[in-house]
Structure formats: C-alpha cells, structure tokens
Amino acid sequence: MSPTLLLLLALGLGLAGWLAARARAWSFRRASPDGRLASLPSYHAWYVALWTVLPVLIFVGVWSAIAPGLVTQSVLATPAADQLPAFGFQRQTILNEARAVATGASQGVFNPLAREFVEPYREAISRYNWIGIIVTLAIAFLGGVWAFLRLKPDFAARNRVEKIVMAILLGASLVAILTTLGIFVSLVFETIRFFGMVNPIDFLFGTHWAPDPMANAENPDPTRYGAIPLFWGTLFIGAIIAMIVAIPLGLMSAIYLTQYANPKLRAWVKPALEILAGVPTVVYGYFAALTIAPAIRDFAISLGASSASSESALAAGLVMGVMIIPFVSSMADDSIAAVPQAMRDGSLAMGATTNETIRRVIVPAALPGIVAGVMLAISRAIGETMIVVMAASTAANLSANPLDSMTTVTVQIVAMLTGEGSFDHPATLSAFALGFVLFLVTLGLNFIALRVVKRFREAYE
Amino acid sequence: MVTVVHPNLTDTDAKMSARDVSVFYGDKKAIDDVSIDIPTKYVTAFIGPSGCGKSTFLRTLNRMNDTIPSARVEGEITLDGDNIYSPKLDVVQLRARVGMVFQKPNPFPKSIYDNIAYGPKIHGLAEGRDELDAVVEKSLRRAGLWEEVKDRLQDSGTALSGGQQQRLCIARAIAVDPEVILMDEPCSALDPIATAKIEELIDELNGRYAIVIVTHSMQQAARVSQRTAFFHLGKMVEYGRTSDIFTNPIEQRTQDYITGRYG
After folding, report:
1. A202-223 mean pLDDT
2. Are residues A250 and A372 in the same domain?
3. With an 8 Å Cβ cutoff, are B122 and A340 in contact?
4. B209 in any annotated domain
5. Residue at which a domain ends, from A155, A174, A195
6. Which of B162, B110, B101, B106 is nearest to B136 (CA)?
7. How far is B5 from chain A (nearest CA, A)?
8. Which chain A residues have a beta carbon less than 8 Å from that of B169?
9. What are the tens digits of pLDDT across the range A31-48?
10. What is the CATH number of the domain that holds A272?
C-alpha cells in the first residue's frame, strides 16, 4: 500500500473523528443548563481531527524514509545474500534490479543473480507494508480516541487548537530555514574537499583561472585555480555596470512614480514596471546575446576597437541592469513612501519646490531604505546566472575594459558542473567552493540590507 | 446666511484679505463663502469644532491645498493687495512670505542648524557661512530656543523634545523672514508646559509678523489672540475682537460653542 493511500485513510479517519467529536460537543451543549460550552463544537471537532491526522502524517513521513532501508536489510539477511559481490556498485545494481521486478516496475532481470532476490524483496515489501498500515491505523485510532475521551463541556478545545495551528505554522517556517542550513552544510563539505586539493590562498588570491578537468586529479596545478578573475568579472558585470544602469533609472522612476505621477498614470506604469521583474531571466539572456551584444560589438568596431568581442561584459551588464531596475525602483518606492507626508509639507511650506523637496528632504530621509534596496539588487545581480551564461563568455579575463569578454562566478559554476570532469575531480569541486563564496557574499549583503531597513523603519515609527 | 462681523472692528490695514472663498474637495464643499481681513499687527485665532474647515481655510492662505490633487479654491485671496491665486504668482515666493507651522512638529531629519538654514539656503537669503550662522542664531533666539541648543547645533533636530521641536519649526519658519505665519493647532501634540512656552513665544512674535493660529482650545484663543473668527460647518459664523467674541457674542451658535454647549 502506497503512502498516498495511507494518507487518504488517515484523512478519512480524521473526518470520522471530526464528525463524532462535533456530535458529542453538541450533545454537551444541549445538556448544559445555559446552552454554552467553553469552546464552540467545531473546535472540539478540529481538536479530535487534528489529533487523528497529524501523528499519522508524522509517522508516514518517517516511515517512508526508513521503510526501504528496513526492506533491504531484511533481504540481505536471507542466505542468498552471501553470493552477492562485495563491491558496492555491482551489489547495488543487482539489488535495484531485483526490487524493480518485485514492485512490478520492470519485467525481467538482466543479471541472473538478481533473480534470487526478487522473491525475498516481494515478501519483505509486503511485510513492511502491512506493518505500516497497521501502525498507521493504530496511531490514528489511539490519537483520535485519546482526544475524544478528553472532550468535556468545559474542555478548552479552542485554545488547544490554536496551539496546534501555531505549531503547524512554525513547522512550515522551519522547513525553509532547515533547507537553507542543509544547502549550507552540503556546500561546506564539498568546499572542504576542494580545499584539501587546492590551497585556499591560491584559490582566493590567484589571478589565473583555467581548471583542466582532464588533468590528473591527484595532483592539481594550484596556479590554474586562481579565482580573482571570476570575482572581478562578477563584480564588474553585476555590481558596477549593472548598477550604473539600475540605480539612476530605478531611483528616478521611483521618484517620478511617488512624487509626480498622477494616480491614473501610476496605476498603469507601476504594474508595467513590475512585469519587467516577471520576465524570465533566460529571455533577458536571449535579448542580451542576440540583440545587445552584436550591437555593442558593431558599435565598438565603428569606434575603431581592434578586438571587439561579441561576448562583452558590457552587454551582460547592461541587460542585467535593466532586469534589476524593478528591484531598485520598488524598494526605493517603499522607502520614499515611508517618509511622512509632514516632511514634504514642511518643506513645501518653506517655499521649496517639489524638486528641492525631493533632493534635500525626501531622498536624504529615504536614503537608508534606498541603500538597502541597492544592496539587495547587487546580491541578486551577482547571483544571476542565465544572462551571463548567454551573453558573457567563459574566458576568465582580468580586465577593466567593458568591451572585453569576461566570466563570472555563476558562469563558471555551470561550466564546471556540466563539464567532462568526474565528480571528485578538483575542477568539478571548485564549483562548490565558488558557490560557497557566492553564498557567503550574498548572505552578507542581504543581512546588512535587512538590518539597515529595520533601523530605518524604527526611525519613523 | 451671512457672517456676522462685529461693528466695532475697524481694522484698516489688512495684510491678507479673503473674498467669497469656497474650497471643494472633489464635489464636497469644505469651505463656504468665507470673507475675512487678516490684520497686519495682531494674532488672529480661528476656532470651531472639529471638521468645521478652519484648518482647510488656513491652508488656502499659503496655497498648501495645492498639494491635495482633488482640492479646488474659488474666490479671491490677496496678500498686500495681490491675488495669491493669480497664475502670475509664484507659489514658492508666496510661501516664503507666508510661513506655516504644523499641528505635529515636523523637523527634517537633519541637524538643528540645517533645519534652520534650509529656508535661507533655498531662497538664497544668506551669502556665505557667516551670514548663515547669523541667520540661524537670530531665528533660534527669536524662537527662544538658542540657549537650549546653542552647544549642540549639529545634533539631529528629531532628537529634541516635542516642545523644542515645535519651537524649532517656528524658528525654521522665521528664518526666511516671512510677513505672515500660519499656525495649524501648533500645541495640540504638546504638554501644558511646552504649550505655555509656545504661547509665550506667540506673544513675543506678535506685532513683528501677522499671525494666524488655528486652535481647538478656546482658552488658548482667548490668551494669545486679539481677533477671533468662529467657524462652523464650513462657514465663518462670527468675526470680531477676541474680547467681544468671548464676552459678547452676537450669534447664538457662537455663544453655544464658547460656553461649551457643543464642540
């Protein structure tokens, strides 16, 4: 029996519990002298239903994680297991084949040895399925009955349900946090492996980036793993060129929309600007690679540049800047709108023009929020992949000329992970070290930006 | 129904005059046909229950209603005989001549010095640092704040107490040397001690500037003003010397309001 069926069964039991508890609560209510209960009947019903379903959900989650392991263990306990090869990979293949046949996922076996295990698998699977079903039903029943027996006219079901709901919400928010932690931990392990092969100093401060996935993995050449050109390319494209585009345009559009535009125009322009944020980045990538980059190359050639590349940092940076405009604009919009109207009135009443009011009072007052918006935009820009994969190149140049081709950390992560090297080769593992650095940098930027925003909010509340 | 103007009111030197002024918010008429002369030398108080339009009318005097898109003003308001709603008039210069202090103190999030220097800077009233320093000191002295802040002019204006902030806002308004100062319930957010200081300050400024103060408090109007206008439901009901309005009101509604029958 599959987890889906178990869940449906549990939900059915929950519904039964719900109905039974509600009926019981109504009977309390009719019996009570003033027709009042400590909690409404529906809260009694939810209390029993939640106690029936939630423990089952937890059990099913845990059970589907451990049951396959238990099945394999019991198969390996059969006498036939002695014939299995000791080497992990072959052994695993045979077991997988046997399991596939046992569950009906495939018709026959390729390896004759696997045939020996089909029957034990089938038995073990059906045994553990039955255990699962019985335990599930037992848990649902016990939980429901226990909860049902606690119902009394003065039982505070409402408060308990509130607490359970709060716990569910807490669990939901923990999932995101735990996922972040999990990502971090997995990055850390691979990064440590990489730093065991290449010295972190060489990696962080070397100026030559040319990992060779075909070279001997045992003895990598540390001089080919200098990531400075990547950091520079990322900074140059994401934090310099893109921001030169995004900060003035985003800020000015925010000022126009909050201070000058009449409500009708604002209602039309603001969503249009937000659509820009909804365009998939891969589409921006086309635009950068097919339209902007050739135009920049032709322009550079017409100016007399000798070696204009069709993959320039400028093209990627410009398009990325356009992509970031809505972020800067909406953060700036929020923080400008948070400046109290009284400030604006005070300045206007002094005889300042709208423009003077904006430059001398509103923007300075909103500056912390604007800075935070820019930081979030930078952290997004340097983590952006698709545009640079399509418009920038993979050549790691350390150059200040925006017409040169450059590469970024994210481009190299893609290149290294999709390359030909084996998984434990330092060239592949370098992707994790790059990702780790990127993670730390964007985390730091976000952290600072959120702190700034928080302090700014407090200033006006 | 016509506004009752007390017959013994014989001011001849009107700084500002309103003639048949009506204000609309969209279709709603907030001010109905108000005519009044604001004298040069005295403090004029606008009193009346909440929502009677006294603040709205005050804001028409330096065209602060322009910042509300749906607001529309009919009639004529003059400053020294010039129509302030004439298309030829520069609203920037009008507001330099008619300053305003708001209900809630609203210092800019800048230093005390920069708060005062703001107006002189945007109007080019001071040349060089020394002149600006002098303007700042003079304004703060007039607002009675100099002794309290002279050692911390670079501190943020928002770090002052509420009463000090309001005096800072008055000093800020004085710094551009206006002819009229409008005050929109300047003490409603302050405690009694800070209120007393502001009232004292209004007394000192009286005579140097034409002052118009909107207030909820009849005691305050009686203490600081020489002329009082009573507003009710968007109309100006009665206008006269403060002593006459409070001791000898002509209209029944004025009498009811000042005796606390409503409002």
Report:
1. 81
2. yes
3. no
4. yes
5. A155
6. B110
7. 30
8. 346
9. 888 877 788 888 989 999
10. 1.10.3720.10
Going by their DSSP bridges, the two strands B4-5 and B235-241 should be labelled as: parallel
pLDDT digits (tens, 9 = 90+) for A68-111: 888 888 888 777 777 776 666 677 777 787 778 877 777 776 77
What domain count does chain B have?
1
B157: distance to nearest CA of chain A, Å? 12
Contact residues on chain B for A340, CB-CB shorter than 8 A? 106
pLDDT digits (tens, 9 = 90+) for A285-329: 888 888 888 888 888 888 877 666 777 888 889 999 999 999 899
CB contact under 8 A, B95 and A340: no
Same domain, yes or no, for A136 and A272? no
Tell me if A162 is assigned to some domain.
Answer: no
| Same domain, yes or no: A148 and A229 | no
A95 and A232 share a domain?
A: no
Residue B131 covered by a domain = no
B258's enclosing H/E stretch is helix B252-258
Q: Nearest-CA neighbor of A372 among A459, A270, A444, A445?
A: A445
Domain range for A361 is 222-460
* A361: contact with B, CB 8 A cutoff: yes
Are the beta carbons of A350 and B69 separated by less than 8 Å? no
Same domain, A303 and A436: yes
Domain assignment present for residue B163? The answer is no
Q: Does A272 touch chain B (CB under 8 A)?
A: no
pTM over 0.90: no
Reading chain B (263 residues) residue by residue, the pLDDT tens digits are 568 888 777 777 889 999 999 999 988 999 999 999 999 989 999 999 988 889 999 999 999 988 888 889 999 999 999 999 998 889 999 999 999 999 999 999 889 999 999 999 999 888 889 999 999 999 999 898 999 999 999 999 988 999 999 999 999 999 999 999 999 999 988 889 989 989 999 999 998 999 999 998 889 999 999 999 999 999 999 999 999 999 999 999 999 998 887 76
CA–CA separation, A310 vs B220, rounded Å?
Answer: 76
DSSP 8-state class, residue A151: -
Interface list for A 169-208 with B (CB within 8 A): none
ipTM: 0.89
CA distances from A193 to A148, A186, A390, A424, B195 (A): 54, 11, 30, 9, 71
For residue B145, tell me if it sits in a domain.
no
A126 and A248 part of one domain: no
* CATH value at residue B40: 3.40.50.300
In a domain? residue A274:
yes
Residue A109 placed within a domain: yes
Distance separating alpha carbons of residues B11 and A130, to the nearest angstrom: 102
Residue A358 included in any domain: yes
Residues A404 and A309 sit within 8 Å (Cβ to Cβ)? yes
Number of domain units in chain A: 2
Closest to A432 (Cα-Cα) out of A323, A424, A12, A109: A424
Which of B108, B121, B169, B180 best tests the A interface by mutation, with the highest count of A CBs <10 A? B108
Contact A350 B94 (CB under 8 A): no
Check whether residue A321 and residue A431 sit in a common domain.
yes
- Whether the CB of A340 is below 8 Å from some CB of chain B: the reply is yes
